[in-house]
């Protein structure tokens, strides 16, 4: 049995979490979900969107899956997601972006993975005003952070039989910061005998739109990773289907890429696929490859059949109807299409 911290989150979070739990349980894997909440919905009770017991629960269980959290604007609270990443030193943000048979998208054979540095760069949050003149934000790039993210990317390439690693940067302009990232990227890729190349971030943006099929694993500093991973989500059918993980040496938190979707919250309309795909990543992280495969095949079958799809994918099924269909196929143990 596994102990997993489950943070349902805000908006559509509770609906997609409920769906995800049903689908994972249909595989027969025994998980004890420790449900603790964070976000807008707990501020009144705890006077913070991230009560200490949430972090304690993750530290105890070492693994968590979370729904989206609405960022309280102008209330003086720090972002829950950023705080969690810092408190647990989750230095990798991993986003596999793959076309799903059956889901309409602009491209057919996209299968790439973005490895985003998750702790520094312009997200260090070191900003100040400069009189009436303007403001400054400081970009921090350290050798240690570059080394561990590139090491992670190289291990990922080897462990998953990937073909190529691309380092994304803007070292032609930011010679010291991105220059350091690029040097570390080249040295460590060389040492690991990985097939690698590097690409300037603006060219990467264009090439990912023109020929996404040509990319495999990409590693980059925080800000470029934030932007390019959303761009890549758009290549394969949008936010409703893309999973993500925040991983550190000791802990991991799995979560969908999308936000709390207040416009459809509580309406039984949300597509739970992104969180379900995050659960697939979690099952693989736990070494439960068969269960992960079962869910993947069930999703593929539902998409190819195309009878029971949520509204964002052009169907008219509710979250619950989609989940019922998926659970049926997980229980049947469908073969690969
Ligand atoms: P959003 O991703 O919540 O919504 C953008 C659009 O996509 C909306 O029209 C929404 O209905 C649709 N959408 C998103 N997920 C969907 C799903 N699973 N099924 C069907 N449709 C879906 O982005 P938005 O509106 O910019 O942010 C809303 C809130 O979420 C904000 O407070 C934001 O800060 C927060 N957020 C939280 C994240 C997290 O906790 N990881 C990530 C991104 C945003
Ligand atoms: Mg983002």
Automatic annotation (TrEMBL):
<keyword id="KW-0560">Oxidoreductase</keyword>
<comment type="similarity">
    <text>Belongs to the isocitrate and isopropylmalate dehydrogenases family.</text>
</comment>
<dbReference type="Pfam" id="PF00180">
    <property type="entry name" value="Iso_dh"/>
</dbReference>
<dbReference type="InterPro" id="IPR019818">
    <property type="entry name" value="IsoCit/isopropylmalate_DH_CS"/>
</dbReference>
<feature type="domain" description="Isopropylmalate dehydrogenase-like">
    <location>
        <begin position="3"/>
        <end position="326"/>
    </location>
</feature>
<protein>
    <submittedName>
        <fullName>Isocitrate/isopropylmalate dehydrogenase family protein</fullName>
    </submittedName>
</protein>
<dbReference type="InterPro" id="IPR024084">
    <property type="entry name" value="IsoPropMal-DH-like_dom"/>
</dbReference>
């Amino acid at each position: 049995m596994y102990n997993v911290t489950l943070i349902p989150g805000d908006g559509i979070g509770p609906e997609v979490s409920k769906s995800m739990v049903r689908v994972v349980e249909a595989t027969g894997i025994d998980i004890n979900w420790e449900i603790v909440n964070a976000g807008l919905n707990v501020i009144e009770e705890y006077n913070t969107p991230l009560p200490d017991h949430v972090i304690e629960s993750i530290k105890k269980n070492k693994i968590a899956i979370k729904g989206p959290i609405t960022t309280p604007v102008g209330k003086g609270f720090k972002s829950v997601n950023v705080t969690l990443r810092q408190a647990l030193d989750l230095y990798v943000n991993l986003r596999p972006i793959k076309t799903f048979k059956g889901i309409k998208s602009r491209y057919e054979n996209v299968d790439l993975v973005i490895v985003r540095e998750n702790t520094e760069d312009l997200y260090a949050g070191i900003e100040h005003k400069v009189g009436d003149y303007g403001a400054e934000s400081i970009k921090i790039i350290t050798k240690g952070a570059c080394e561990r993210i590139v090491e992670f990317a190289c291990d990922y390439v080897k462990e998953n039989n990937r073909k190529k690693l691309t380092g994304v940067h803007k070292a032609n302009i930011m010679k010291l910061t991105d220059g350091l990232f690029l040097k570390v990227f080249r040295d460590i890729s060389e040492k690991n005998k990985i097939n690698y190349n590097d690409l300037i971030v603006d060219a990467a943006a264009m090439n990912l739109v023109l020929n996404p099929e040509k990319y495999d694993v990409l590693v980059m500093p925080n800000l470029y990773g934030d932007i390019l991973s959303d761009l890549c989500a758009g290549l394969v059918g949008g936010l409703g289907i893309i999973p993500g993980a925040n991983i550190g040496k000791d802990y991991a938190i799995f979560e969908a890429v999308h936000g709390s979707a207040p416009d459809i919250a509580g309406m039984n309309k949300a597509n739970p696929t992104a969180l379900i795909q995050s659960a697939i990543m979690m099952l693989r992280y736990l070494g439960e490859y068969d269960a992960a495969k079962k869910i993947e095949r069930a999703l593929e079958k539902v998409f190819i059949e195309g009878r029971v799809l949520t509204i964002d994918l052009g169907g008219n099924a509710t979250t619950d109807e989609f989940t019922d269909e998926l659970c049926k196929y997980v229980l049947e143990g469908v073969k690969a299409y």
